[in-house]
Amino acid sequence: MNMKKNIVTALLIAIGYILHQIVPGAVGSMKFDIMLSMIFVALFINQDFKNTMVTAILGGIITAMTTTFPGGQLPNIIDKIVTCITVYGMLKATEKLPYSKIRIGAISFIGTVISGTVFLFSALVLAGLPVPFKVLFISIVIPTSITNVFVTSFIYGLVQRSIKIAGIDL
After folding, report:
1. How confident is the model over 17-36, as a mean pLDDT?
2. pTM value?
3. Domain 3-164, CATH
């Protein structure tokens, strides 16, 4: 694994931790998961399966530690692993396409919907939900998915420009 890419991934996960920590809980104590944007950017930059798994596990553990959702620890880990593997698959399936904002936005939207769905379903099975699944899906998952399209595209652009300006060869 490329050390420079690993360092960028670690920095993105750290930024995601800070953002996840300061975002307040919303409906049913469920948070907008901005950590996903950082995870997606890390996967866009370093499309290696080992990195995908490390990113998934780190992202899952960190969001589990900072969750405000009752019983949300294990569902956070499950959803990050499933989401990262799915996003990795989408990246590999579309790797011949250029990095356009549409591709980045589509992958981040789909990835966030998958993450929210897996989280809610696993939380429902493991701990129960404080409000109905549909309410949480409509009030948290869909708005977070839309928000993450813009956040991921913006952060990815910043990271790409920063890497280029710094002359870092990834």
Report:
1. 74
2. 0.91
3. 1.10.1760.20
